[in-house]
Amino acid sequence: MARRSAGVLHYSISQEGLIPERSYPDQNSLGVAKTKLRAHSDFYFNPTLNDWALSFNAFDIMCEVKMKNLASQRLYDYAGAGDYRFSPSCAVRAHR
Asked: H-helix or E-strand containing 29?
């Protein structure tokens, strides 16, 4: 039976060192140019943002980070350790 989902959520966060390791970033107080904030991080290092992204459980999550395969596996493992209620169609996968 083929998997079906409502769509794909493209998930990326700014590079390490530019945004907080925990909590939501406040773009106005970061003092960093928007162009720098658009550069993808290596991994998903911020659990607050990970929890937020994983809350969209009707979507597949397309990982938009530099270390795509490793980061997608880590995010998948993180999701499995949490109390997330995934629909059968939910997947975390690397963007290719």
From this structure: helix 27-30
